Amino acid sequence: MKNNQLISFLQKDLENERMHCLFYQQAAATVRGLHREEFRELFLKEAESELHHIDEFATLIVHLGGVPDVKVASLPSDMSPSPENLCRQAHLIESSVSETYSKRLDETNQAGCESSYVNLFYEDQLTDSKKASFEFKLMCEG
Q1: Alpha helix segments (H runs only) across the chain
Q2: CATH of range 3-141; options 3.40.605.10, 2.60.40.60, 1.20.1260.10, 3.40.50.150
Q3: Could you read off the pLDDT of 25-53 as tens digits, one per residue?
Q4: 123, 105 contact by CB (below 8 A)
Q5: Distance between CA 113 and CA 108 in Å, rounded?
Q6: pTM greater than 0.85 (yes/no)
Q7: Non-local CB neighbours of 81 within 8 Å, separated by 6+ positions
Q8: How does residue 114 score in pLDDT terms, banded at 50, 70 and 90?
Q9: Which end of the chain is less packed: N or C, by CB atoms within 10 Å?
Q10: At a CB cut-off of 8 Å and minimum separation 6, what does 34 contact?
Q11: Where exactly are the structural domains of the chain?
């Protein structure tokens, strides 16, 4: 796999990471209900984590010879401020990105040694997204 193909994957995934960060910031600002402060703190913590992911993706793109773009994927259409809805939306976006990272992991595994670091990078991203997905799913069930 050539660097330009890896960069293309990373650029698309960077768009999603930016959307996740904005989603969590918006959720923190708009969440309503009895436990607003706890959910606000949770969403702000997730936004901070996503900001770290954005930096990681951008740095890797530069390392591979690219320039990170500034596109942002579209936010979910249902941003109603109930904690249950926001946790459900968070579960959906984290589940979706987990599937994408699992696919990227397969693609980079097949690519061979020139992308071994990118493969490890996607393993870490998949682990983080899966953990977040599982936690938000548990919140939706309670």
Answers
A1: 3-30, 36-63, 83-111, 116-141
A2: 1.20.1260.10
A3: 999 999 999 999 999 999 999 999 999 99
A4: yes
A5: 9
A6: yes
A7: 30, 31, 32, 33
A8: low
A9: C
A10: none
A11: 3-141
Tokens 């990681």, residue?
56
Supply 93's token pair.
């976006």
Output the six-digit token pair for 6.
């890896």
Give the span between the Cα atoms of 28 and 89, in whole angstroms: 13
What one-character-per-residue DSSP string does 83-103 give?
A: HHHHHHHHHHHHHHHHHHHHH
Which amino acid, one-letter code, is at 17?
Answer: E
Residue 50, C-beta contacts closer than 8 angstroms, at least 6 positions apart = 17, 18, 20, 21, 24
**What amino acid occupies position 88?**
R
